């Protein structure tokens, strides 16, 4: 058995709203749902080939599916992985418009993480509808979720304000830029890379010296762990995700990534492949792998290659071509990671009083000092 895989499941591509930047076009966001048979086959095959798996329920909007779908999925996981076996975990990624107390209570009872796509005070820049209404109706026990903020041209320089909006409630927040795919290909929502870099460094500097709030800042915290020698699979763009991630569409089509992945990388269909391993031996997977290897060869002289691993293949594909580096995501990672790592190296070299630093940074650094390894740029 292989050790671990992350599986993004899109139970439907239908959505109850119409975000300006969505990499799924309105023509793709049509009704239609994953059948019980497809769901069962997927969960069974993953359980037979992997020691453990993390399922991310995505879409379209997953909460346009009835709650019975999620109950069915969890029952299938309990049956195939073993109830209480710690071999599986779940995250539901939602726009939050249909979140309610009943669903949150169910998630709590089954230890399902909930991620809400939400930019706080800037939510209406990209999105329609008032998610704050649904969130404020949750009780204090039920309002445990993390936030994914997708940053566009208008919000690039407001990342610090978004972090400050959420940190008081202890809500974890992650930031990522709009990529030029689907609706965002040509509507001006992609951020200016220099502004994104400035905004990203500003929010990091605020968080680094924020000793009062106990929340991680993503992706910066993952960059710290990566620099200290402990890269996390959640940082899929910089941990050679190919072979470690899968995305399954409502009809069972398998892709290597959840972001607007074109048909040329189709890896087969869950209802017809004999195993997950067979999907990874498909022509579609070979194509994305070969293109990514060519891009990585061009990265070989980059001083941070060992931390970046050539970045996200789908970002590169949409920015400048699968085989090319140098697009916005490459520039953003180079600048932001270099800033983060130089701050961490300063702490390692000078061992200053850590009481004014964020708790997550303190813990990561203390772990490193107790168990040192080589850190060099
Ligand atoms: C495609 S949605 C699907 C799940 C759910 N409907 C939601 O919005 O959370 C998942 C995430 O992708 C992000 N996203 C959509 N289009 C994007 C783009 N062009 N670039 C970067 N992120 C994008 C959304 O903001 C959202 O956080
Ligand atoms: S980002 Fe999510 S909520 Fe927004 S249109 Fe796309 S699928 Fe729907
Ligand atoms: S930062 Fe850019 S050039 Fe350097 S390894 Fe990453 S993708 Fe390649």
Describe the overall structure.
The chain is an alpha/beta fold and 377 residues long. It is built from 13 helices and nine strands. Strands 7-6-5-4-3-2-1-8-9 form a nine-stranded mixed beta sheet. The mean pLDDT is 94. The chain binds S-adenosylmethionine (SAM) and iron/sulfur cluster (SF4) (2 copies). One iron/sulfur cluster binds next to loops.
Q: What hetero molecules are bound to the protein chains?
A: S-adenosylmethionine, iron/sulfur cluster
Structural class: alpha/beta
Q: What portion of residues belong to β-strands? A: 5-15%
- Point out poorly predicted stretches: none
| Number of helical stretches of at least 4 residues | 13
**Reading side by side through the largest sheet, how are the strands ordered?**
7-6-5-4-3-2-1-8-9
The Rg value, from CA coordinates, equals 20 Å
Distance between the termini: 35 Å
What's the shape? globular
